[in-house]
């Protein structure tokens, strides 16, 4: 049975609108991805770490309830959980303030054994933390050699741009090991100074053999491979919150690879039909999540979506 492993931090998100808290829930980019996948019936595990405090215990309970395996989450005793305050602007895009985990000792992660055909989704700032990155690269290298499909989302926001000279070598290492790189226009502008999919793909071609999925909010999605360049329209919606959009898009990629049993070592050679399904599922998932304050697809959406997929298969 094919499995998905997501690697990322666990955070407790508190969301503000007009300076008033409107929601609070477990978050973190790849945690959000894993919850969507769990609700969609995918065998998914989250690799990460958290504190053994009240919030940490709640997050573990929440993940297990939503079908996410937590065997690979390392728990710190005598620690305090990470918090993120998300402030929504008039367009319901978020600006963040992060409060790091407080712990004793060094950061640690527990990595799984990988089987051929498994999928590894990783990214965000967690994937370029200096204390974690050497072991992370060892694992991603091992996973790729074992036949896993590697998908990376740099999720590199403007707030971190002053640190780019120090962080960029780690970003490039992550890209070099990936089969698919999914990122937003903001990410690639901050990393490479590029403002469109073709120029971003040109920058990537010297670093990696990965295919590019370039997202640009309401302007849609661009797919760029060696053999195909395609644009897909975004859904016409009025978003409530865009916090989980990119994370749920990642879930769409992982879901489609496993649900459609796609096997590949070269993403550039995927069929047009396969790529269309990957992007269209991802757009549907991310569009749905923008319609509420949760950072993952709703249980009702997941049930309806998987039932329709079964009927149409």
The coarse silhouette is globular
Give the helix level as a range of percent.
Answer: 25-40%
State the order of secondary-structure elements, H for helix, E for strand. Answer: EEEHEHEEEEEHEHEHHEEEHHH
Counted beta strands: 14
State the low-pLDDT regions, or none. none
Q: Structural class, please?
A: alpha/beta
The largest sheet, given as strand count, sense and whether it forms a barrel, is: 10 strands, mixed
Intertermini distance: 19 Å
Mean pLDDT: 94
CATH top-level class? Alpha Beta
Describe what you observe in this structure.
There is one protein chain. Strand 9, helix 3 (133-145) and strand 10 (149-153) form a beta-alpha-beta unit. Helix 1 (29-39) packs across helix 7. The chain starts with a strand and ends with a helix. Helix content is 36%, strand content 23%. The protein has a single domain (4-106, 116-312), classed as Ribokinase (UDP-N-acetylmuramoyl-L-alanine:D-glutamate ligase, 3-Layer(aba) Sandwich). By secondary structure, the protein is an alpha/beta fold. Strands 1, 4, 5, 6, 9, 10, 11, 12, 13 and 14 form a ten-stranded mixed beta sheet that branches. A four-stranded mixed beta sheet has the order 3-2-7-8. The protein has nine helices and 14 strands. It has helices spanning 29-39, 54-65, 133-145, 164-176, 185-192, 197-205, 245-259, 272-289, 299-312, and strands at residues 4-7, 11-17, 20-27, 44-51, 68-69, 73-76, 83-88, 94-99, 119-123, 149-153, 180-184, 211-215, 221-224, 229-232.
